[in-house]
Amino acid sequence: MPASASARSPRSTLALPRHPGRLLRGVWARAGLTLVLALAGGPGAQAAAQQEAPEWTEWWSAHRQDYLVPHRLVPSKEEQEQEQEGTVTRKKIPKVEEVNEFALAQIDDPWPAVRMAAAFLLARTSGEKALPVLRQRLEKDDGSQQHPLLLAIGLTTAPEAVEMLVDVIEDGMLGRQRLALRSDAFATLGLGLAREHGQREAVDAAIEKLLKRRKLGDEVQHALLTLAALSPSPALEEYCREQARNRQAQIFVRRRAAASLASYPGEKSAKVLLDTFKDASDVDLVRSVALALGAIPGDGHAKALVKLYEREGEQHIKAHLLTSLGRNAGVGTLDALIAAFEGGNTALRDFALIGLALYTREHEAPRADQILLAALSNRSSDTRKEVVVLACGLARLPEAVTALAELVASGDTQPVRANSALALGLIGNEAAREQLLAAGGNQKGSQTLPEIVGGLGLIGDPRDGETLVGWVRGLKANERRAAAISFLALHGSIEVIDGLVQFGGDQSEDGPTRAAALQALGLLYEDGPRPISGRPLRFERMPTFPEWLSSLWSMSY
Q: How far is CA 330 from the centre of its chain?
C-alpha cells in the first residue's frame, strides 16, 4: 500500500516540489482567524535545497484548538443529570441573562466584527428567541454579513431556523430575497451547527434530501463534507468515502472528503484512505490522507502507517505522517518516531518531536519522555527550542516545569518565551501555576503576557480570574491586548465573564478589542455537547479549504 515514487509529481527527501496545488498556500494561510486562541508561532524554517520545507507551525496552527480548550461554564447538578438523560440541550449557565442582554445591545454596533460576534453570542445565549432578531438583520443586510448571520441562525437551533436554512440551500433565496453568492453553502454549515446543538433528527432528514439531489454545486459539496467534521452523521460517512474515491470531483472536494474521514475511524475509512494514499497524484490530497490516518486506531493501521512513512519520498507528507504515528500509538510507531528524530533532518525532527509528544500524552513511554527532556536541556541542539518547549507541554511532562519557567523569563526569542508559557498551562499542575503567576507579576506590559494569561487560563484555577482580568486591563492596545482578551476565554470564571462584558461594552475601546471580548464570551457560552470551535480548525489550512470558506471560523469562532 505504499505510494510509488512515480505516482506523483517529482519529489525529494530534501524539499517539496513546486506543486501547482500548493502555490496559493501563502495566500490562503494568511486568511485570518480573528478569534483565535493564538499561539505566537516561531520563525519560519529555512528552506531546504532552495525549496520550501514543511513547517511544524503549520501543524500547530491547524490543531492548536484541540489542546487550547476553554473551561466550559458548568450547569447545575440537576441540569447535568437532565442532559445525561437527553431531556435538555441548552443549559442554564452563569450570568446568561446578563450576557444575553449585552449581546443584544451590541448587535447594531458600527464595527462589523463586533456585530458578527454579537450575533453568535446572542444565538448561543438566547436560542430560539434570537431567531426573529437575526432574521430581521439578515433581511436588511446588503450582503456583507449574510454568511455569518446564516451560521448564527443555525446556532439558535429553532425548528424554524432549520426550515429557513433548507430553503436557502435549495434556491439561494430567503422568501423573495436573493442572498449573497454561496449563501447555500453557508446555510449548509448552519445546519451542522443546528444538528450539533440539538436538531439531529430534522437536520439528518434535510441532509438525506440534499444527498439525493442529482447535482450539487462544488461549494455545497464542500460544505457537506465540512459538516461531517462539525457533526458526523451516518449519511455523510458514505458520502465522504464516495467523494474521496471520486476522481471526477474537484480536487479540493476530494481533499476535504479525505480529511473528513478522520471523523469516521473504522475499517471502511481506513481502506479508502490507504487506497487513496497509494493512487493519488495530488500532493495535498495525500497530505490530507496522511493526517486522517492518524485518527484510525489499531495495530494493523499502525503497521501500515509505519510502512507508508518508510517508503514515502515527499518530505511534506513524511512530516504529517509523523504526527499521525504519534496519534495512532500502535505497534512500531514509537520506534519510527525515535528513528526520525535521530535521523538528522531538522524539519522532520520538529515533527518527530510533536509525534513523540502526542504519543506520550496518552501512553506511558519513558523513552519518549527522556528524548523530550534531553532536547529541552540541550542548548546546542539544532532542534528549534520553540517546538521543544511546546512538545513538552503537549506531553504534559511535570519534570519540565522548572526549565520552562526559566525560558518564560529569559528565553532567547519571543516565540520561545510565549510557547513556554502555554506549555506550562498544558502541563497544568500547581507548580506550573505558581511559576506562571510569578512570571505574570514580573512581566506586566510585556509581549509574553497574553500567553501567560493563556497558560493560567488552561489551568483554570478559580482564584486567578480577577488577577488575569487586571493584568489584561493594564495592557495597551498596541501591547497585544486583543490577543490577551482572547486568551481570557480559556479561564471560564465569573470574574472573566464580568471583565469581558466590560471590555466589550466600553465604547472607548477600539473595534478589535471589543470584538475579541465578544468572541471570547462566545467561546465561554458554547453550549453544544462538545466544544465545536476546535474540531474543524485543522481543515482551515489551504489544501482542504477553498478560498470562499477560509474565513468561516474568523466569523464564527
A: 25
Spatial neighbors of 498 by CB under 8 A, at least 6 apart, are 95, 469
**Cβ atoms 196, 159 nearer than 8 A:** no
Residue 173 bridge partners (DSSP)? 178
Q: What is the bridge-based pairing of β-strands 173-174 and 177-178?
A: antiparallel
- pLDDT given at position 84: 53
User: Whole-prediction pTM value?
Assistant: 0.84
CB atoms within 10 A of CB 53: 21
- Average pLDDT of span 79-104: 68
314 phi/psi in degrees, rounded to 5: -80, 120
Closest to 424 in 3D by CA, of 461, 464, 451: 451
Residue 463's Cβ-count burial label (10 Å; 0-12, 13-18, 19+) is exposed
Look at phi and psi of residue 534 and say left if phi exceeds 0, alpha if psi is from -120 to 50, else beta. alpha
Task: Give the relative orientation of helices 346-362 and 366-377 as an angle to the nearest 10 degrees.
Answer: 130
The dihedral sign for the CA sequence 235, 236, 237, 240: positive
For residue 410, what are the contacts with CB-CB under 8 A and spacing of at least 6? none
Distance CA 199, CA 201 (A): 6
> How many CA atoms are closer than 13 Å to the CA of 63, on its beta-carbon side?
16
pLDDT in tens, 312-330: 988 889 998 999 999 988 8
First and final C-alpha spacing in the chain: 39
> Would you state the cell numbers that stand for residue 60, as one nine-digit string?
500547530
pLDDT given at position 30: 25
CB atoms within 10 A of CB 369: 18
pLDDT at 270 over 70: yes
Burial (CB < 10 A; 0-12, 13-18, 19+), residue 84, is exposed
Distance of CA 385 to the CA centre of its chain: 23
- Interacting residues of 345 by C-beta distance below 8 A, sequence separation 6+: 13, 315
Q: Do the Cβ atoms of 65 and 533 come closer than 8 Å?
A: yes
Task: Name residue, grid cell 468561516.
Answer: 552
Let me know the angle formed at the C-alpha of 195 by 193 and 198, rounded to the nearest 5 degrees.
110
Residue 407 has pLDDT above 80, yes or no: yes
* Residue of 490, 491, 493, 515 lying closest to 504 (CA atoms): 515
Determine whether 44 is exposed, middle or buried from the number of CB atoms within 10 Å of its CB (0-12, 13-18, 19+).
Answer: exposed
DSSP sequence for 18-68: --GGGTTHHHHHTS--SS-----PPPPPPPBTTB----HHHHHHHHGGGTS
301: Cα within 13 Å, side-chain hemisphere: 27
Residue of 183, 100, 106, 103 whose CA lies nearest to 138? 183
Helix, strand, coil shares of the chain as percentages rounded to 5?
A: 65, 0, 30
